[in-house]
Amino acid sequence: MWNWYCVSLRILSVAGLLGFLLGLPFTDHRQQIQISSYRVIAFFLGALGTTLLSQYQQEFYFTWVVCLYITFEPVIGMLRKRKKDSLSVSQKWGERLMLIVFLAVCVLYFLMCKRLSLVFEWTFLSGFLGAIPFLLIKKKLPDKPLGRLVGVPVITLFAFTGFYGAGVAMLIWGY
Amino acid sequence: MIPEDLDGKEKLQQVWTSRSMSNDVVSSVLVNNTIYGFDIFDVQSKTQRPSRGMLRCIDFLTGEEKWSQGTGRARRGSDKDDPEEIGQCGMIAADGKLIVFNERGELILLKQNPDELEILARSSILSGELSWTPPALHRGRVYLRNNSRAVCVYMGDPDLLKTSQKTLTVADVPQSRYQDLDAWIIPVEPEFMFDVPSKA
Fold it and tell me: Where are the alpha helices (DSSP H) in B21-136?
């Protein structure tokens, strides 16, 4: 499971780097583009990683946990808005969509694990609890480019570690 | 072995113990002090492994293995399956033979022979899906089924079959193509964390 953790961190790192680079050419909404790109890339790498890495390495690597984590990030991000009424209609629907995607990914994750006889991977569904404190800190980060450049990767590392650790703790407790 | 005249005062003794016959969804048979059965090599059957483990013959009185078939090698996906290996199977004993139905849907006729594996006949009856069901025998007919289909195969004397009986050949039995999506998504054997079986 240590290997899975390291591979998942690499996926997040690669996605973060690619997202950062993809957003550079844009002057407007650069940060939003970088974050969205990072999340989309991380999700697809996480979804495909289990199959492709396992095939390539001929050893089982489980990376779907990245998909759970990456769809959970924006859900915590939604808590930033204190006054919901101040949101535009499109923003409200955007938030609802993120929540629906998150719930759908969780359900799909569970069903896939069940279908594929991945008998203990469901425990990562408890990982959200471990990530919450760090993701709450992440959204409090100052909006300065340099601070975010350093702070976001470090806190993401802690948040994912908390996420993964909570899943492993549930596994140890459950078995 | 429990004596028939056990009066409750005698102490039972363990003659031998072995983990070489781990049945899971199918059972072994005991014929003439010989156990024929399947050792799954693992604590539980999994759908993504169409065949794994060994077919074994064990002396019931001593626990000595007489013969075995299969490598027990872990594999994944039906394309990596060795078609010669019988694999996990249910069986019944009748008329000096063993009627075996393996999880690949093959009906196999073995001779009850503790000295060697003797395959008398072998035919793919319900291919394309996992069959974790035991065969049933009644009046020369073997009844087989998997999740979606059932087949009755006549194994008796052809002369005893009613002339009015409508029959199909094995070629007429519709076969399904196994879409091994699980092995496509997860191409190698995952780690499993099952509870270990209790010690014998």
Answer: none
For A143, the token pair is 């909006």
Which of A55, A60, A175 is nearest residue B190 as measured by Cβ atoms?
A: A60
Q: Which two tokens stand for residue A142?
A: 């100052």
Say how far apart CA B124 and CA B106 lie, in whole Å: 4
- B99-B100-B105 Cα angle (round to 5): 130
Separation CA A42–CA A159 (nearest Å): 15
Q: Using CA atoms, how far apart are residues A162 and A63, in angstroms rounded to an integer?
A: 16
DSSP 8-state assignment for residue A27? S
Type and span of the H or E element at B30: strand B29-31
Bridge partners, residue B138, by sequence = B141
Query: Side chain identity at B132, as an amino acid letter?
Result: W
Answer yes or no: do B189 and A60 touch at CB < 8 A: yes
Does domain B29-74+81-185 sit in CATH 1.20.120.450? Answer: no
Count of beta carbons in the 10 Å neighbourhood of residue A42: 28
At position A168, the amino acid (one-letter code) is V
d(CA B90, CA B96): 17
pLDDT digits (tens, 9 = 90+) for B141-193: 999 998 888 999 998 888 888 888 788 887 887 776 656 677 788 887 776 55
> Which percentage of chain B shows pLDDT scores above 90?
34
DSSP state of B47: T
The total of structural domains in chain A comes to: 1
Across A122-139, b (16+ Cβ under 10 Å) vs e yields bbbbbbbebbbebbeebe
Show residues of chain B in contact with A117, CB under 8 Å: 46-48, 182, 190, 192
Q: Is A119 in a helix, a strand, or coil?
A: coil
Domain residue limits at A6: 2-174
Mean pLDDT in residue range B67-93: 78
Nearest to A119 among B185, B186, B192 (CB): B192
Q: Does ipTM surpass 0.90 in this model?
A: no
- Contacts A115 to B, Cβ<8 Å: 182
Asked if B183 contacts B76 with a C-beta cutoff of 8 angstroms, the reply is yes
